[in-house]
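Hey, sorry to bother you again with one of my protein questions. There's a protein on my desk that I can't quite get my head around. No rush at all, and the record is pasted right below.
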Amino acid sequence: MRITLSPPRWTLPYELQHRVPELAPARTYFQSPRAEFEAAYRSQLDGHGIDQFASRFQEIAVESGDLRLVLLCFEDLEQVGEWCHRRMFADWWQERTGAQVRELGPLGPAFEQGVLM
């Protein structure tokens, strides 16, 4: 499910079947430095709350017939210094629910060294 304001500017090898605009960062802080971005994004998430997201995820899982949901944004986390709101959401979700949101695929040495997140 896409959690971005806009679709990617390139062709994907798969279909984006769902969109959760509540998880997309707002344009008002999108270009902000990371600390400001994260504070604004977490405030946005808090405004929606765990129950709203859990309900939306359940709705998508039932509609698609699959409990395995994948949150998609399009930053390349294998690049040193790159970060994304998907991982910010994952941290926020884990802090509030205790449930871990794991990353699919290798993230490369930058992530392993703690440079990202």
Q: What stands out?
A: Residues 83 and 117 are 6 Å apart (CA to CA). Helices lie at 34-64, 85-97, 108-112. The chain is about 40% helix and 0% strand.
